[in-house]
Structures are given as C-alpha cells and as structure tokens.
Design goal:
By secondary structure, this protein is an alpha/beta fold. It is 33% helix and 26% strand. It has nine helices and ten strands. It has a six-stranded mixed beta sheet with strand order 5-4-3-6-7-10, sandwiched between helices. Strands 1-2 form a two-stranded antiparallel sheet. It is elongated.
C-alpha cells in the first residue's frame, strides 16, 4: 500500500522568526468598513469626535457643546463655528483557526502553517495596538484568547498558539453559530481551515455574515491532498471520525478526485465572493511568509 509522506513539525519549531517579525512590523491590518470600538485606539475613522486631531468646522446650532466653539473666529468674523475632530478608532481583529485532527497532517504541515499565519496576523495587530482575539476550534471553540492588545503580549500569544493540540472533529457550522452568538463587536474576522468538514460551510458562513463582519476565508490544503501519490488497493481512514472506505486507486479515480476537489474549492470561492467575503486558496507548499507578505496584501487585508 502506497502512502503519502507526512512530516510532523518539531515540538520546538518556531512560529515566527525574529527576521520575519521585523518585516511584519511595517504592516497594518485594514478593514473595508469603519469600526468604532469601546475604547480609544490608534486609528482614525471618518467620523467626527473629540480627539486632539482637528478635522473641520461647521456652523453652531442650539444644543451644541459650547466648549468646542472657536472664539478666535467669532472675534474676527462674528460667526459661531464649532470645531470638529477626528474620532479615534479601535479595530477588532479576530482569527478563527481550525485545530481538528485533519489539520495534523501534510508536508508541509497544515496545522503549523495555519498557526504561523495566525501568529503573523496577531503580531501585526498587536504592533498596531489593535484588539486581537484568537479562537482555535474543532467541534467547539475549544481554545480562546480574547481582546489582547499591545506588543508586550506577543510572547503570550505565541505560547498560546504553540500549545494548542490538534484534536476532535471539525464542525464549522456549530462553531460559527456559537461565535456569532457570543461576539458582540464588529471588525475583521479571518477564518483559517482546510474545510474538510462533513457539516459543510454554507450555514457557518451565514452565521458569521449575520454579525456584519469584514470576513476573510483562507482555505489551506497540503500538497498531498491536492495531488495524492496513492496507488493500489487501499483502506482509507478518516482521521477525525474513523470512517473507513476500501478503494482501488486508479488513474481515472484520481482524476475524478482531483476534479471533485477543484469543484469543491471553486464552489466555496463562489459562495464567498457572492457574499462579499474575500476568499483565498493556498497550498502549504506556498511559503506562509509569501502568503502574508504578498497575497494578503494583494487581497487588501494588509497594507
């Protein structure tokens, strides 16, 4: 029986190198929408507020706060004009990443790849004083780190990601529903998964869309899943729920598998695109640094 080679990541394999972290410091996470948070951040929105950055004037109307009248202009022009200021913006950045058993596979390793992308996005957010939340999921939101901000928490975030095991059966629908019920804010949400989920993706995406989030879906597969090197009579085992199937691997069967996989990925892409979600497919053969520094910038998530 022929099997695909799989390399397990070393326990001490680092998620982010110091050199790559210095490159990430030049980036920031963007939102296609304006989100106002509960506390003051370092970003500026198009709304007018009460920060120290002057924006514009408008005519005074009865009921306006007299503290913001420009008395110098009144002394010169005898006009009551109200000073307007740019309101600061607090960007919430959330990464939902799959930690089910199917992620513990592939060469390069799918789970490590996803953790590295999650670590990179978290680092960018923390360097820009965004509010960062991480959720590792399988059948539930099993691993959570919510609402952290500031560069001083980078090492804590890295340890959190490194210590998450790959376990359980993925249930994206149940996880997305739970997340939508609990998540009160607005912001950027990035979903990282192989989407090898028997419950499908449509209902889960619908739950996330109900929160009016700025959604990005990153679909990650290993080279062995895209182009399996298998032949002969095999007994295939589902690593998540232990379902088995006995098959004879032939070229026509492999061709049909590849066609079905391509169709599935295209359906997921079209489903996301029609709903205003940015979809990105990647093989783990593509360096995660290339994904972050090139592809995510091209898709508008990073600048």
């Amino acid at each position: 029986m022929a099997t695909a080679p799989v390399r397990k990541p070393a326990p001490d394999e680092e998620l982010l190198s110091p050199e790559f972290m210095s490159r990430l410091e030049q980036l920031e996470i963007l939102s296609r929408k304006i989100f106002i948070g509960r506390t003051k951040g370092e970003r500026r929105s198009k709304r007018k507020g009460e920060s120290v950055e002057f924006a514009d004037y408008r005519n005074y109307v009865v009921g306006d706060d007299l503290r913001f009248l420009d008395w110098n202009i009144y002394a010169r022009l005898e006009r009551l004009l109200l000073k307007l200021f740019m309101e600061e913006e607090d960007l919430n950045v959330t990464v939902l990443f799959d930690t089910s058993k199917s992620m513990d596979w592939g060469d390069p390793h799918k789970g490590l790849y996803v953790k590295r992308v999650a670590a990179a996005l978290s680092y960018i957010g923390l360097c820009n004083y965004d509010r960062v939340s991480l959720y590792g999921y399988s059948g539930t939101l099993a691993h959570e780190m919510r609402g952290v901000r500031g560069r001083r928490l980078v090492s804590q975030v890295i340890r959190f990601l490194e210590n998450i095991p790959y376990d359980g059966v993925s249930d994206f629908t149940a996880v997305a529903k739970r997340f939508a019920v609990r998540y009160a804010g607005k912001g950027v949400v990035v979903v990282l998964s192989d989407f090898m989920d028997k419950s499908g993706y449509a209902d889960g995406i619908r739950y996330l869309l109900s929160r009016d989030l700025d959604l990005y879906v990153i679909h990650v597969l290993s080279p062995q899943e895209i182009d399996p090197a298998l032949a002969g009579d095999l007994k295939l085992l589902d690593v998540e729920d232990s379902d088995t199937a006995e098959v004879t691997i032939s070229k026509p069967l492999l061709d049909r598998y590849k066609a079905n996989l391509q169709s599935y990925c295209l359906d997921l892409k079209n489903h996301c695109t029609r709903r205003g979600i940015t979809y990105l497919f990647t093989s783990t053969r593509v360096g995660f640094d290339v994904l972050v520094m090139a592809y995510l910038r091209q898709r508008g998530l990073l600048r």
